[in-house]
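Deliverable D5.2: sample structural annotation.
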Amino acid sequence: MLHTLIVGLGRSGLGLHAPSLAKARAAAPAHFAPGPVLGHDPHRGRAEGVLTVPSLEEAARRRPPSETVVHLCTPPHLRARILRDLAPLGYRMVIVEKPLALDLAELAEIARLRRRWGMDLTVSTPWSASSLSRRLLAVRRGGAFGRLRALTVLQHKPRFTRTLEFPGHPSAFDVEVPHALALAVALAGGADVASAELSDMTVAGARLPGLGGARLDLVHHTGVLTRIESDLTAPLRERRIVLEFDEAVLTGHFPCSEADHTAQLSVAVPGHEPARSVFPDDALTELLGSCYARYSSSPRPPGDLSVHVEAVRLLVEAKNLCSPHTADREVNSAVGA
């Protein structure tokens, strides 16, 4: 039975992980130790639903680190620093909010920490545990409609207020795109970036460079072509994925918010009426439940960290295409990540 420590009690930690964790605990109590969830955030003294502690050292004194899963929900640029603090205290099981790293230098540092301390990292991209994603992966692996030829993901939502109030993401590539990119790698394998583009956000007289939207074109080594588009200035929310096979087109719609955990999938085959299904899809709850089940297992099955390492590499490549003068100098050091 595992304890929980949430590090970072902002929108991600308190708004997303904490309520999904409560549902996961209720669904599979055998994986979770009784007692309150611990939380630590140097900028927050109290938080509803968690027992806050003033330091990581105090958290380690209250619950054994070897039996505690850490939810690392800090802003992206703090990942490696917090992992450096957690590792010597004995924490080994860490669920890291996406993206795993913002650049290859940080990815290399995280890889060194993981190898040195034997840390088992899981990246929190709920689409990897989504019911819709599992159906798409099953179709891809089964080959019922022939080869997968093209993949398109649209991730549109207005994000003006959060961008102004919580400027934690350096570009639109770091907000929604990591979800889609990890799924694209899972569906079609490794890839190269063919083109990338960022747009600015303009709101209330302010111009926020690179935070309005992102577009990314990939050529996978399997021959599949992927386009990912994310518009953070869109008037409406949409999370849509389209898979084009030899003999069918599958269109899926992911839930757009925690207000409704329902996904939809339609299958269009030439000569037949389209088939449409609607089903529950509480992806983050499923992801956390599967993480604790895996961490509780002996022997422990492997995770999918390699998918997220490839996703970070592609994100960095895309950013460098948009800003060639900021090309990362530690590409070689990240190879072993």
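Annotation notes: DSSP finds nine helices and 14 strands in the chain. Confidence is low (pLDDT under 50) at residues 325-337.
The annotation will be released with the project's public dataset once the embargo ends.
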